Amino acid sequence: MPRPRKPASPFRYFNSSPEVIRLVVMMYVRFPLSLRNVEDLLFERGIDISHETVRMWWNRFGPMFAGDIRRQRRSAMRGFRHWRWHLDEMYVKLNGEMVYLWRAVDQEGEILESFVTRARDKDAALRFMKRALKHHSAPYAITTDGLRSYRAAMNELGNTAKQEVGRWVNNRVENSHLPFRRRERAMLRFRRMKSLQKFASVHANIHNHFNLERHLVDRQTFKERRSAALAEWQSFAS
Prior knowledge:
Layout (H helix, E strand, L loop, with lengths): L17 H13 L4 H10 L6 H27 L6 E11 L2 E10 L4 E7 L4 H14 L5 E4 L3 H10 L5 E3 L5 H16 L6 H18 L8 H15 L5
Parallel strand pairs: 1-4, 4-5
Antiparallel strand pairs: 1-2, 2-3
Helix pairs in contact: 1-3, 2-3, 3-7, 4-5
């Protein structure tokens, strides 16, 4: 019986090592740095690559790393009890046009889903919620703001009883927008819907991986979690 072939390495056609590629993707997606900022910081470490290489690597490997993170975390979250979702939409400028980034966050601050639409109506809310429910198990409660599109979409889905609306109860998802806003300013906005959707999804998963809740734990625990997250990052796509 022939032995099963080992999957080919996704890094096999690149001269740089996988460690350098992972470092470049992490620096560009996780931190509010431009392509040229990443190029300059790497040059100080003795790594000579161009900013276009940074662009190519994050476009090629960012979704791959994000997919590994997403698969691991989804399997762990499906068994949660009393799982609460917080839904909200934020506006993003796209070539001077206003589009909307819908986001679902759980009670721990984990970003579950990101979805870009041009409208903020019932159809957009329904597509967003169907996508979130397809990828994750049904929550115990869904917290939203007063946007009527949520109520109309939940009426069609038949889970209106789970909706909770309040003035301050949705601060969890409102605060989760801040890292993306900082990253958006460093990138000087977006030009295409496809690019925005791609970056929002990749950024959300990498942010989840390195979101260590340092304000809730002591210094030693934070250092241990940070080391574990970095070690796991080095194993992605290996």
